[in-house]
Amino acid sequence: MTSINFIPLDYDYFDFQGKNYIRIIGRDEKGKRACVVDHFDPFLWAIFEDSASEKRIKDIQKKIEKIEIKLPSRTTKVERTEIHEKKFLSKKVKAIKIFITNYKDAHPIADKLDFKEIKARREYDINIITKYITEKKLIPLSWHKISGEILNNSQEFGNIDSAFDIDVCIKAEKIEKLNNKKFRPKFLAFDIESDELELGKGEILMISLVSDNFKKVLTWKKSSEKLNYVEYFKSEAEMLKTFINYVNKISPDILVGYFSDGFDIPYLKARAEKNKIKLALGLDKSQPSFIRGRIPKARISGIVHVDLFRFIESVYSQYLQSETLGLNEVAFELLGEGKKEFNHKHSSKIKEHEWKDYFEYNLQDSILTYKLAEKLWPDMIEFSGIIQEPLFEITRNSMSQLVESYILHNLDKYNEIAEKRPLHDEIKERRQMGKYVGAFVFQPKPGLYKNIVMFDFTSMYASVIFTYNLSLSTFLKKKFNKTLEVNLEKGKVYFSKEQGFFPLMLSEIIEKRKKYKKEYKQNPNPIAKARSNAYKLLANASYGYQGFFGARYYCREAAASTAALARKNILDTIDKIKKQSYEIIYSDTDSIAFLLGKKSKKQTIDFLKKLNSELPGIMELELEDFYKRGLFVAKRTVKLGAKKKYALINEKGKFKIRGFETVRRDWCNLARNLQNKILQKILKEGNEKKALEILKKTVDDLKKRKILKEQIIIRTQLKKPLSEYKAITPHVIAAEKIKKSGKPIDMGMLIEYYIAETKIKKSLVREKVKLPEEKGEYNIKYYLEHQIIPAVENIFEVFGIKKEDILQKDQRKLHEF
DNA sequence: ATATACACGGATCCCCTATTTCC
DNA sequence: GGAAATAGGGGATCCGTGTA
To answer: Which site from A129, A382, A435, A592 is most exposed, i.e. has the minimal number of CB atoms within 10 Å?
Structure first.
């Protein structure tokens, strides 16, 4: 027996003689490409009724062991069974573990377990790789010592070692986890350019590739200038062949693109087909395969294909300020550099000397993608390690899938059998349930306040779930002794006080989050930060997960109770703060703002300690900050204060602006910047005088047509296919215009437009829409009445200045010209 | 395909009234 | 001259986006 130190990267499975085997590609310690083949005994569970007698169980076991399914290609039978004492939804159960020949047939086998003493059949609907990892504990992106037999030209598994381009192949006998050591994968970033955005429609003009000390642009277009990183070919086909050769030669661990699931890989595949070339990117020379979905997932055998856009969209975007998730903006925020400027036009119109810029542009995209991959690597590795799913899945799964994977991989700690995925009808039913009551939001009074204290609950929902033990596994249909009773709108619901595994798991997540946050503070480094963030994300998503109709552990009652008890706690706390004669000015979900008044900061902090000592369980209130001033405005429609809209300045002069148009991307920059400046001025100075001057200046500039076009562009996202819109809004018109001009329209596109002057008097805004590149003058009336005034009128109204006052002054000014 | 709460612009619908059209 | 058709104003409601 030999052994290697191994880090798993890419997981797949195959059948050999009717049985399932797992194939994992990774690296050994010397950086050599290694392949581990492991057997896997698939199984599922059947859970007995509590009333089932020992004798009956034995009977059933014998019957189960005779189950067999004959298919044309294979026969699957029950190989063996074991009786276990397990837990299901935190309750003790007797269950039978049924080992079968091939996991693909787990479903039909489950269907055959039709005995009245069996109340549930489970774990036949879990992905085979997930199941393998939970069983064998071969954790992705962690080092392991694999002992076993080296396969060298072995006929076993049909010559697997020679089918793959690998250095060593081992059939695993024993797997041991090693202590964490660093691993730096070999990335290869790539990007393609073409005239047409519709998949495969036009030719691929060029492909850029970036890896360690490697930069290339492959093209078949001629340029007047020779560049050392550009390789010229005589045709698209030759270029594609060389691209495939480079990928094979460099043999990266991770092939990384930006939106490459949705564009680059499918495009390459389509063009390769057209040119009758096999897109043999896989380690076994196979072509990429596509797993269906909203955006298909492009899998390359043996190499992890990471589409950074997808990872950023599903996981990382919440840490970003960027308003779009385009490569340019994201790279700017994370790396401080953006894409190269290039004025896109059809290749037939590009002059010879202009190609150089296009090549540079194309190369820069891959450089940025490469750098982003390096930057996000700590997050990918931490997510993969914590959730224990392969990188391919981690970078593509939604938040609910990540939470669920975390649960599945941790169930054995609690001796739990997994709950099943909801079936189609079940999902339909859950969705029809409608909404339950959510968070409490305090109705603020408009005004400019001084000396504000803000408290907030740390991980409020997660701490409520643990404190009150709210989950599917603790939800009771009836009231028993020692139960928690929660009043919901539709009646009372009950939860057991016996510890449920879900709340317990969540408390461990919270603990780990605290631990790594502390660790990060003591020693700031990307790994600690990524780890702390990953746990924070899991904790935050758990509440939503329990209320999500697609969840295995869906429990509407638990989700509704979480919200209800969070409301109760914050309202109780508000009462206590009031009783100390503080004046509450605002509260939303987990935060409370009130005036310091005559009290000192120390008194307030002492009071916070007292509040904390009275809070149930692990619930915790902390001081968010002291603020020098805060502004709350009225709603547009009624005189009441607007919720979720306020601006604060702390004692260090740092602003916190929420909900205002300043932070909304569907307002033009002119209105946003103006509002931002005005808010900041008012908060800094404590009055509106100077702010009013800023407003006048802007109105003046607007009327004199001094405003730059960039400032008046309105951006709105297209959230569904154009044809599905019932209300034809300005951004829909703009999208139609783009489509007419021959550019493709994608769902999710950010549509840009401005409102122009028109000759004829038109009443609808949409009739004045123009695209940024269209010539025209901006509509002064529109920008004044629909952008500038609405953005600031509520602010000035706090100081008793009415919209008419502002407008009248303007009109007088207008006459002066 | 994590949850609900909230603000608000613009379109659309509906009702009412004034004006125009038609007999 | 009077009824019917039409235009236009104003408010309620719906649709849609984005944020907390």
So the answer is: A435
Cα–Cα distance measured from residue A351 to residue A345, given in angstroms and rounded to the nearest whole number: 10
For residues A319 and A533, the answer to whether their CB atoms sit within 8 Å is yes
Query: Strand C: which residues have Cβ below 7 Å from it?
Result: A 323, 588-589, 644, 658-659, 663-666, 715-720, 724-727, 729, 731, 750, 763
Question: Is the entire prediction scored with pTM above 0.70?
Answer: yes
Exposed, middle or buried: residue A85 (CB in 10 Å: 0-12, 13-18, 19+)? Answer: exposed
- Closest nucleotide (C1' vs CA) to A726 is C15
C-alpha separations of A277 from A198, A241, A268, A280 in Å: 20, 7, 10, 9
User: Quick one: average pLDDT of A343-372?
Assistant: 93
Tell me how far CA of residue A244 lies from CA of A209, A230, A284, A297, A638, in angstroms: 11, 16, 13, 20, 64
pLDDT of residue A807: 63
CA of A807, C1' of C6: distance in angstroms: 35
**Among A113-127, A230-244, A668-682, A803-817, the least confident range:** A803-817
3-state secondary structure of A639: coil
Give the contacts of A665 (CB within 8 A, at least 6 positions apart).
A323, A715
CA atoms within 13 A on the CB side of A7: 21
* Residue type at A74 in one-letter notation: R
Closest protein CA to C1' of nucleotide B4, residue = A438
Q: What is the 3-state secondary structure (H, E, C) of A33-48?
A: EEEEEEECCCEEEEEE
Whole-number mean pLDDT of chain A?
92
A419-466 residue pLDDT tens:
999 999 999 999 988 889 999 999 999 999 999 999 999 999 999 999
Q: Give, for A516, the enclosing helix (H) or strand (E).
A: helix A501-522
The answer to whether A563 touches A437, Cβ cutoff 8 Å, is yes
Does residue A444 reach within 7 angstroms of strand B, measured from its CB? Answer: no
Residue A594 host element (H or E):
strand A591-595
Check whether A813 has a pLDDT greater than 60.
no
Beta-strand relationship, A254-257 and A187-194: parallel
Query: Does the pLDDT at position A182 exceed 90?
Result: no
Tokens found for residue A319: 């840490």
| Beta pairing class for A304-307 and A254-257 | parallel
Is pLDDT at A816 greater than 60 in this prediction? no
Lowest mean pLDDT among A139-153, A159-173, A686-700, A802-816: A802-816
Average confidence (pLDDT) over A11-37: 94
Tokens 């010209």, residue located: A817
